[in-house]
Amino acid sequence: MSKPSGEQSRSDRRAEAYLAPETLAQLSPFEMRARMIVEGVRSGLHQSPHQGMAVEFDQHRGYVPGDDLRHLDWKVFGRSDRLTIKQYQQETNLDVLLMVDASASMRFGTNPIKKGWGRTDASERTGSWTKFDHAVATSVALSWLSLQQSDRVGLFMFSDGIDQMIDRSSGQGQWRRIVSKLNSSPVDHGTNLIKTADQVLGRVSNRSIFVLLTDFLVEPEQIQSTLARFRHQRQDVLCLQILDDQEINFRFNGAESFEGLESDQKLKVDPRSIRDEYIKSLREHADLISSTCSQFGFDHLLMNSHESVGPSLGRLLARRSIWLKRNRAG
Amino acid sequence: MAALGAACISIPIIIHLLSRRQRPPIEWAAMQFIIEAWRNQRRRLRLQNLLLLLVRCLIPLLLGFALAQPILNSSTLLGTSNTINHIIIDNSLVSGYTDESGTSPLESNIGSAKEIIQASDDDDVFNIIPLVAVETPNQNPTGDRETLWNRLDRIESMQHPADVERVLRDISSETTLDSDRGHNIYLLTEFRRGTVRIDNSIQDIEFNPARTTLRHTSPTSIPIDIVRVIDAEPVRRITLRGGGIESLVSQCVVRLERDGSRPPSSTTTIRAINQSGGETERIVTWDDGQREMVVDMVLPVSPDELTISPIVISTGPFPSQNFHTTVEVEESLRVIILDRDQVDDENRSSGSDPGTWMERALLPTRDIPIDVRRIDPVSLSLTDLLDTDAIFLLRPDLVENKTWSDISLFLEEGGTVMITPPRNREVHDWIGSMNEAFDLQWTYQSDTVLHEEGVKMNYVDTTDSILDVIAPELPSLTEPVRVTKIVDVDPGLQGTILIEDETGRPVLVSESSRGMGVLLVLTTAMDLDWTSLPAKPLMVPLVQECLRGGIQRGLARRTLTLGDDDWRDQTDRSNGDLTHSDGSFIAIDDPESTIDKSGFWSHRTGVGNDTRVIAVNTDPQSGDMDIQSAESIEQWLGGTGEWTILEEEEEEESGGNELIWFLLVMLAFLLVIESVLGRLFSPPDEMEPIRIGPNQNQ
Q1: What is the pLDDT of residue B348?
Q2: What CATH number was assigned to the domain covering residues A10-29+94-329?
Q3: I need a surface site. Which of A78, A297, B125, B627 has the fewest CB within 10 A?
Q4: Which residues contact B200 (CB under 8 A, 6 or more apart)?
């Protein structure tokens, strides 16, 4: 595994544990900026807000009155006597802002920690690979990928508001700072997505891509309201919903007593007897998130914390690339 | 065991409660989904849990019942060491009747008792109670099987009347005294009328239902056709050798009774057998459904017999089919006429004095074997009375107190005493002496009552009169007789008026309630100034019948029914043995001695070497084979407590086996139901992995 910098600290070694070679291998073909390229196509139709930044040739098209004559491809005109306009893809440095949920609900996990895996405050406390660990692993991978593409990467850790943050940067030490911050953050409070969104959006003026890593175990109204805020700011959001396998499958052998991680609710019940109903509710909740994201043009990915980060994330990025190409062709 | 089964119901409840044990709670993030799912499923889950709990409670309950049934049936719980089992075994007369199968009800009862004992636990104790016990057995309850078997095998059919009520009363007293323990009472009988007479319901016996269980065998429904001899009364109990009326003395009136549901028409042969082998026979025909019959037959009595001739009148071998009686055979009757021989008495010389009239009446012909002695009342000694059969006291006014005592003793020993008023007295204070001597309370008028014109006499038809033999002729015989003088006596309840005059004054009174003999009082003197009786045809038969009837009545007292307590009164001595014709004997002076079987019992009298024979018969009621309905038995026993029928219990036990099978099938069914419901209500442990989210659908 390669490293962004030469010196290895303790946090680096822990961070490395999150970047399994297969994860990087699965993610590397895809570029985080792809979505922003689409943004550029869209902006070409109007006015790119990112002019002056790096662009690259994309395709030719016939001249129509009103086109900027500076974009005429004279060489083509010389060879074919046709006025052809050179179109360019707007290429910008992408700001990737990772929003990692550090609320208490993320502390849940049932996958036993294995040797060599990264550890966070949550996994240290529970002894399991928690949803927070999975979010951290995903964040580390994405930040690594983004920094490799010279994108600026920032970090917000939130619960009932922003708990900690690292400003955007594409510098060499940024990845290490991010990893260090992720590792050291306590995971305790409740979740307030709306407040967090307000705080985050108050700090970001330019268009960025927000990667929201959370379990979304809040009221649907809160989710809709949060995503609406991002949409209103014309931001792009990649919703990565992280759930533990036990939360998804709800497999138990007998009666259990449940206690809310973010509430005082307690219930003794035989989970087997309510499994179907539970899964139905969970499915409806996930569908609601998905439809909300779809409505706002955001991506939604439900990640099982028992599965590797790479494949699922790779599938999402692949999907985004396909979508991109389709839009280009159109 | 049923309680244990019921207690087992608590097992699923305990499991249910244990399942609610405090386990470390799972910290769960997606609580809202759990709560939402639980809220949606709460009612269904409660219903399912309740249904499962119900099924799981029913399983041990049914198992408990299934296991409890055979254990209850084997009386394990009922026969604990704190319970005494009283087994009353009917060994009454009818229980000894052996039918064609060769098994008597008594043997069946003993078999049932053994089955009850065998079905019990080793530590159960039993009290074996024969329904008829001549001697009160002193047997403590025991659980030792060998002892119990010995006690059961020693039980024999007894001829004494059964008294179920007394036995139940004894046990009731015992259960009342022994209130610490439970009591199981088994009454093993066929409930034939010979054993149980349900005419009157049982009074004042009530078992405590909390500590006493009552069971009896089912009343039999099998009729037994049997002809019993209820009574046999010889017309004459005494026969005199050479007498002229032998044809009467061998006659006997026999009462028969036939048992059975509706006996068909049939014939019965009645045999009368004396101890010398002499036998007479009579065949009678029963109509369809006829149950009772009274027939005459000739008894095999011969003048050549010994003093007493025991005769058995029989219709079959069973004790109730045999009646024992005796006829006394005498060379002659010995009669004393107590009269004063007055030399200056004109009547005496003319042969019309009372003594002469009486002597003529006793000896109307020369060949009548009656020895008549005339003794002056003041000369009578006890020795004179030893061989005397009857005294005719014609001068009671002359009898001294000592003589009155002797006459009273004679009367108590079975003698016949006839008293007439003295003809030459108008005041009759002797009645007071008689009352005192014989312990009577007759009222009387001292002065002679005079009917100047003379009044007629009327025969008063009473049952069981000593004049029965001549009763048909008495109206015509009394017609010509007139009474002029009479002593007005009113015996009240202490005597029977056999003849009275037209004015209703008693003429002839008999009293036989005290002692064994018969007292006869003729209230008119044997004198023509008093009555024309001595000169009328009535005189001879009246005196003869008074003599013979009186003697016969005394002899009849020598016939006993088993169960009579006064058998010692029939003996004239207080010691010695009473010997049965089969050789067994009992000591008279032993207060525990009891005549326990029918037949002829004899003992030496206190006078000379004479033998007195007592004919003992079974109580006619105790031989009654008629069956009785279960309803009537239930009603009869009902006042004592709640009785259950053993056979029905056995049927219930066999039915119980069916019940066990039913319970087991139900148990299996419930297990299946529980399994199905458990599987239905509880999702399988192997659960398909769930895929959620848009990325999983593409």
Answers
A1: 65
A2: 3.40.50.410
A3: A78
A4: none
